[in-house]
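Deliverable D4.2, example record:
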Amino acid sequence: MNEAREDGATESGVFHVSVSLEGEWWMGRLAELPGVVVPAASLPELDEMVRGAIMMSVDPGGIRPLDSMVVEYDYGGLSRLLQLAADVGAQHARLIEANVGLKVLLRAAKTALVDEGYSFADICHLLGLSTAEVARLRELRDSDGD
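Output generated by the structure prediction step:
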């Protein structure tokens, strides 16, 4: 776990939240901000409220956008099914982020290969993509005005 620095930031920039379900309320306890307990009626609301609490404690001027914070949730005190679902959700979020980065890289590689004069078939083979996927990259490039 990180220790909060004097300016309220953490060494790694990650905030850890222990989640429990108390009656009908989800409760988030922030490890880096002792004494901060955030209640919410739903998990999406909990995430928003936790980020708001971090912002108020760490960045009172409101400079950082809420979604730029790295928040890791620990559902360990809940049922095994909820923990599994939370782990799947976190992995899904990482895959979406990785996929966005991969699309940017593929698009750049495809553009560079086209500019170098490689054939459509060669580009498909080199990038390991189907002709439809490479065509979609072309549509994205054309829609950007490249």
